[in-house]
From TrEMBL:
It catalyses: a 5,6-dihydrouridine in tRNA + NAD(+) = a uridine in tRNA + NADH + H(+); a 5,6-dihydrouridine in tRNA + NADP(+) = a uridine in tRNA + NADPH + H(+). The lineage of its organism: Bacteria, Pseudomonadati, Bdellovibrionota, Oligoflexia, Silvanigrellales. This is tRNA-dihydrouridine synthase. The active site is at C107 (proton donor). Belongs to the dus family. It is an enzyme of class 1 (oxidoreductase). It comes from the Bacteria. FMN binds at Q77, K146, H176, S236, R237. Its EC number is 1.3.1.-.
Length: 371
């Protein structure tokens, strides 16, 4: 059994393995989580929620808390402009029945940071302590925090952040190996993550230490674990269009689906999309980004993406996929004969979500932050 395919204890929760899906704004909805869980994700989260929106009982925010009956363990992530607001939100999320709650102190998006949320908190060390302290008092469920190395490279304070969250008794923390100011063109700093994890080890506290950043396959997950000694990894961009990454990391071998398997999964995702969002135009619009990500790696797929990016009905999307499938061999391997190794600046969420399917994820976050 590989290192990652072993259970791990998070408070009172037994997680089946050590490969987690990050809370991805505008992405981590019920259909996508179900697909990732089926491919092996050991822990998944509802996308990041705004404590301010929760305080105002924003309708869309509460709709985002939806949970499928098959999700036996589900986490949720929250961010807010003050310790008190985060603590209130944590108490609400506790009552909603989520199994574990994470405090986001790492989101780099400008409008989130300027609202005093996400990685904006990293410039206020005392607020880090107060936020976790009050959140800890608001729930007995496993509590975690996700953060970056610092706000800028000149303000790296991850060791201090780790010391503060440990002092307030988090059960887990996740470190993304970049500062808030660094883009994906800057490779993940594994040594920065290791320094923080060594700090936790020196405290001899029982806490799960998770590494995050530039995990696109088994090789990068193994490198993260070996060089940082983390207990688990959290996958973000690497799962977009490639939920098979969880299977690959757990099997410790390369997984490139043949076309028949790929098509079956994409159609299943669309079925989950229709089940959750209904047979609506919204369901099709929200599926576009996933379809664009999924269709990378097969021959002559650009023209397919062009039409899928305009679909307004899920049946229309299915018809385009089946027409395309008629000309592709069932045993065609995704990315066969192409350089599929991804580099640190690979950012499908920016390319697809923000450029081609404008505002799908961003509008939801804007509504929450401005509520």
């Amino acid at each position: 059994m590989s290192f990652f395919n072993q259970p791990i204890q998070l408070g009172n929760l037994t997680l089946k393995n050590r490969v987690f899906l990050a809370p991805l704004a505008g992405v981590s909805d019920v259909p996508f989580r179900r697909i990732c869980q089926e491919l092996g994700a050991g822990l998944t989260y509802v996308e990041m929620l705004s404590a301010t929106a929760i305080a105002y009982k924003n309708k869309r925010t509460f709709e985002m808390m939806a949970r499928h009956a098959s999700e036996s363990i589900l986490g949720v992530q929250v961010t807010g402009p003050s310790a008190e607001q985060v603590a209130h939100a944590v108490s609400v999320l506790d009552q909603q029945g989520f199994d574990t709650i994470d405090i986001n102190m790492g989101c780099p998006v400008r409008k989130v940071v300027t609202a005093g949320c996400g990685s904006g908190i990293l410039r206020e060390p005392e607020r880090i302590s107060k936020t976790v302290e009050l959140a800890r008092s608001a729930t007995a469920r496993p509590l975690s925090a996700k953060f970056r190395l610092g706000y800028t490279r000149e303000e790296v304070n991850v060791v201090n952040t780790v010391e503060r969250v440990l002092a307030e008794n988090v059960d887990m923390f996740t470190i993304h190996g970049r500062t808030r100011s660094e883009s994906y063109s800057t490779p993940c700093d594994l040594m920065g993550i290791k320094l923080a994890i060594d700090t936790a080890l020196s405290k001899q506290k029982s806490v799960i230490k998770v590494g995050n950043g530039d995990i696109f396959n088994y090789a990068s997950a193994r490198k993260m674990q070996e060089e940082t000694t983390c207990d688990a990894v959290m996958v973000s961009r690497g799962a977009l269009g490639n939920p098979w990454i969880f299977k690959e990391i757990l099997l410790a071998e390369t997984v490139q689906p043949e076309f028949a398997e790929w098509l079956d999964l994409v159609l299943r995702h669309l079925a989950y999309q229709e089940e959750f969002f209904g047979k609506t135009k919204l369901a099709a619009i929200l599926a576009r980004k996933h379809l664009l990500w999924y269709t990378k790696g097969f021959p002559s797929s650009k023209s397919l993406r062009d039409v899928l990016n305009r679909v307004e009905d899920l049946d229309e999307a299915r018809a385009h996929l089946k027409n395309y499938a008629a000309n592709i061999a069932k045993d065609c391997i995704r990315f066969a004969g192409s350089a599929s190794e991804l580099t640190s600046d690979y950012d499908p969420k920016y390319e697809m979500d923000r450029k081609l399917d404008r505002g799908v994820g961003d509008e939801g976050m804007e509504e929450q932050v401005n509520s």
